[in-house]
# Entry
Amino acid sequence: MHCLYGYGWPDPQKAILSSESCVILLAEESISTNQTHFYEIALPEDFLIPGACNRTISVALAHSPLCRSTRIDYKSSQVAFKLVLEDNLETLAERFRHESQLENIPEWPDCSPGARLRGKGTVMATRKTIERLPRNTPLLNGKKLFLVVTHQPQPWAEDWIQEERYAVAVRIEDRGNPSARLYAQLRTRLRQRARVRV
# Structure
């Protein structure tokens, strides 16, 4: 299906606007070669209510590498991402220091499409659908959700690429609970974090 239709037809309203039951988080950054960026995705309390549900977390990333049309590996670099569960940022960063490659870090199960398929292009996306959240899920037992972004240049481009810009969007949505207050809860949490940093 992805080969025939790609990621489907975009809905402009859902792509740029948040509502109480659907929150969009955006970031635009530059990443140096062989560097890794870590983003903690704060999940609202209503999103973590256990039981039957209809919730999704979607991630989309776009980058624009320099290209050389005369090569089979025409993109000068590879920007890739994964959704990863871990106890905290320090532990996750330590795993990357030891295992170094994104391929060696397991992704949160059942993300579709998987890392190998989506990593072929310069615009990539994945979705995790949750139809039941059990009480023993790692997210309710100390684990946090992180988005990990990496940047690796092709050997032929290492001398003339230093960094690359990318944009990433994360959508957190609950279609099964009309009274979900995802936007308000997430806004409150992010404001509290900002106060702590100041």
